[in-house]
Structures are given as C-alpha cells and as structure tokens.
Amino acid sequence: SEIATTPHVAVVSSPGMGHIIPLFEFARCLVTLHGLHVSFLNITTEASTAQMQLLHSPNLPSGLDVVDLPLVDLSTLAFDVCKELSIPVYSFCTTSAAFLAFSLYIPTMDREIEGEYVDLPEPVRLPGCSRVRIEDLLDQVRDRKNDEYKWYKYHVSRLPKAAGILVNTWEDLEPIALGAIRENPVYTEIPTPQIYPVGPLIKDIEPLTASDVDCLAWLDKQPTDSVIFIALGSGGTLSTQQLTEFAWGLELSGQRFIWVVRLPSDIACDMASFFCAGDGEAINDGREMEYLPEGFLERTKEVGLVVSSWAPQVAVLSHPSTGAFVSHCGWNSSLESVRCGVPMIGWPLYAEQRMNATMLMEDVGVLTKPVVEPGQKTIGRLEIERLMRTAIEGEEGKACRRKAKELKESAGKTLSIGGASYESLSHLAKQWKAY
Ligand code: UDP
C-alpha cells in the first residue's frame, strides 16, 4: 500500500497532556502538511477523558496511528536502541528556547559551581542569553543532592546526542535564546545538533461538549477584549485561602470573567497553589463550588461564568471577547495565548513556569504579574483587584495586548508556507523522506 512505502516516523511523548498536546500536533503536521506516516506512541497508564478525546478522535488523518503503550521506562534506552538500529533520533523540546538554553547549560553549571544554586548571590548568567533569577529556578534544581536533580542533569546532558533538537517556539518570539544556543559552544558539545524552531504548535480547537458550547455562547454576548479567562493548566489549583482571596479580588474588580475552578488543595507550595495530576479529572465532582465565598456566584452572575475543572481553552482564547488570560504560564498555555493575541497575567505554579513568566514579562512584553513580597504565600484580594483592572483597562494591560496582537500576526506568518517555522519542519521532513 501507499502507507507501506511512505517514510515512517515514530513520535514518542512523555506522559502528561503538556507533552502530548504539542507532540500530537507535531505528528499531525508531519502527516497532513508533509505527507509522512506517523505512529504516535503514547505511554500511559490511565488515559484521562481529555487525552482520549484528543488521541482517539474519529477525525484523525489517515497516516497517523496512535499506539497506546504501558508505562515503559524509555529514559535510559531510547537513544541507544535507535543507534543500534541506525534510526536517527531527534529531541522535541516542549518548553521555551530560553529554558532549553538553561537546561543545556546545567552540566556546565554542575561542573563549575560549588554549593547550591539557590545560595548564589547573583542571578545565573546564561552565556549570550538572559539571566535567570534565583527565585525563578525550578524546584528540580533547588537541591543538588536530590534524585530529581540528578535525573534532570542526566537527561539534559544527553540532549546534544540527538541528530537535531526541535523546539516549540519561533524565531521572532525568542531570537536571543535561539541565537545563544546556536552560537555558543558552551551549550552543546561537538558536533552541535541543529536547533529547529517549529512552533508555535498548539492544539486544534477540540470537539465541544455541551458545557463548552454554553461557555462560548456566553462569550458571544460580551464586548470585544473584555473577558478575563482564568485557567491554571491541566492540573494547577489554589489553596483554600488563595481561592477565597482570588474570588474576592475578581469580584471587587468588576471585570468580566470565565473562571475554571478546581477543588483547592492545601498541600504545598509557591503562590499558594499546587499541581493535581490527572488533567483536571480527579477534581471534577462539583464540590469545588462550595469553596467559593458565600453568594459569590449570585453576585457575579451578570459578569462572570464559573466553569468546573476544564474549559475549551483554545476556543476561549480564540474568541474576540477574551481580553486577558490568567495563566500558570505552562508553555502550551503561553503559546496558545500569544498565538491567539491575548495578553497574560502570570500566576506561575511549578516546573519552569516562573522562568516563563519572567521571560514573557521582561523580554516579550505580553504579561503582567502580581506584586509578591519575598516569602509571601497568599496574594491578597486588593492586589488581585488591581491586577484584573490593569489587565483590561490600564495602560500596562493595553501595551501587553498590543504586543500580543503583534505576536499573533508573527505566529501566523511563521507557520505559513515560506515562514521560518514552516520551512524548518519542511526541511526536516525532506531529510527524513530522503533517509
Ligand atoms: N487546558 C484546557 N482546558 C483547561 C485547562 C487546560 O484545554 O481548562 C489545556 C490547555 O489548552 C493546554 C494544556 O491544557 O493545552 C495545558 O498545558 P500547559 O503546558 O499550559 O500546562 P501543564 O498542564 O503542562 O501544566
């Protein structure tokens, strides 16, 4: 058959929607735009509904096969097995180029710096690139004796072994970080793998559920650029106290909103929030509404919509009424926001999100953040009120919106024929076909 002679690419995603979404979109592009045959290997124990809908949708293009695998540990093999079989391996980085630069620099930091990184008196200087504030360092590198740090270092030190590194970003979003990695031998050993920015690859608007349809119908009735969308990724949630303050701040601001509310959790960590694995599912039992201040739903019903656990994020961000996005700054959410031209309010929770938020604010100019005192665990209602007003009505918010709209244009261009990301992927596809 035709499929049997078409060059075949295996795309392997680590578990978690944050990885599956961009890699699946990448797989789809390889099939529909570049005529390759792709097997998408999904390593999973228990697929969530969101995952099932995405990967087992009836509308997948022919030439894209999804294969569910049990939770096998590929971490120590993949490169070696493929080498034995003479199959070239490429890495796909689902985070920013800035974070890739940081990751590639870890082995050097590990050799050159004594003691803990968190005790450094100054931000970490990435050669040719921006600086990383100590308070933005991700949890995995805050304790070098920790196993998580050792694994992270091990994996990033193997990245340069790849035939190439694909990054879900684009030239105009991160020119400095991309340039730094390419030009600075400190990031990769010889021979330096090629860096291919192929983004922003974001998920397609998914099939809508009845509650999604209601949500979009509600948006249809709101003015342009007026609604604040609040959603903290596939698993982010707030502490009980933060949820209360957030609700009051939002109400006091008088702004329109769609808020994806989840059951609060009081276990852990920064900005009074934590990650609840399971793509919003474990917490989807309706009890979360009981944690909102008494009368909140009634008092805000003219201006706001509260959604339980999961909203059709890309559809909401694409809607002209959406005017700002309170986000945990996961890289997919960040790309979706700029791809749709929506400015962000940063509410970073875990992983590299603090670094993303700083970069999106200082280098890109699409994000505003709450003012947080060192050690402060909960952000008060007055600060939240200020932040929400500023995002929609203030000058700072308007400047971020202008920048986000510029980037929307730029993202559209880079993904079109002749655009840098499109051509980067096309170049790879040609190589793979010739292989
Ligand atoms: N998402 C969604 N609806 C929600 C919350 C999240 O569709 O209510 C999607 C969002 O569009 C994004 C993904 O979940 O594609 C979250 O990925 P991200 O990298 O932002 O964060 P992570 O979940 O990995 O922390």
TrEMBL record:
Entry keyword Transport: no
Keyword Glycosyltransferase: yes
Protein name: Glycosyltransferase
Enzyme Commission code: 2.4.1.-
Keywords, sorted A to Z: Glycosyltransferase, Transferase
Family: Belongs to the UDP-glycosyltransferase family.
Organism of this sequence: Ziziphus jujuba (Chinese jujube)
Origin superkingdom: Eukaryota
